[in-house]
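Subject: for your reference before the review

Hello V.,

The reviewers asked for a structural picture of the protein, and I figured it would be easier to keep everything in one thread rather than splitting it across files. Below is the amino acid sequence we used in the manuscript, unchanged from the supplementary table.
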Amino acid sequence: MSWMPQGTVYGTLLNFRAEVEALAPQMNQPPYKTPPKAPVLYVKTANTWSAHGAAITVPARVSEVEIGATIAMVMGVAGTAAGYVLMNDLSVPHASFFRPPVKFKCLDGFLGIGERLVPANEAGDPSGFMLEVRINGELKQTMNFNHLIRDAARLLTDVGEFMTLHPGDVLMLGCDAGRPLAKVGDRIDITAPGFGTLSNTLIEEPA
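And here is what came back from the structure prediction:
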């Protein structure tokens, strides 16, 4: 049976250097006028969760979806990571990046979840994680988690300054810039050494 979350799933914005550099000019514009000082989080609600191998329905009004490949830490006891899991944080492309609307991020099925939770002691140093994204077998993105603004330990500490993560909660480490776009009919494969493959296929909404 595929692993599924037991708590709340949080996404993290602006945690890869290339992503921050690309958006830096916008950070000094209204309404914020300054870069964020703390981690920027959002929730992927339970209706978004899709198991490895599941077909994900794309609404008829949507022509393309953005692939947010990442690895997430799953909380254990005493504020430590119990393990890590592959995730595909899908969204509808949108301009309002700093406050991503729920209607773009939390559509039904829009979070692919790896079938295996890799225990923290097996996963190794999260800064050494490498990840690849393929669409229909073609390599579209490579991610190096050594490029994080906040590594896993720092992210956990900084989030803990303003909220409590409970055992079973899930915190994504972030998605890099250059996120690939996919459309109905595409097969998305996300792979990382030691994690296997997270695969999902996009299908058309029934008429």
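For the response letter, the relevant points are probably these. The chain has four helices and 15 strands. The mean pLDDT is 92.

Happy to draft the paragraph if you're swamped.

O.
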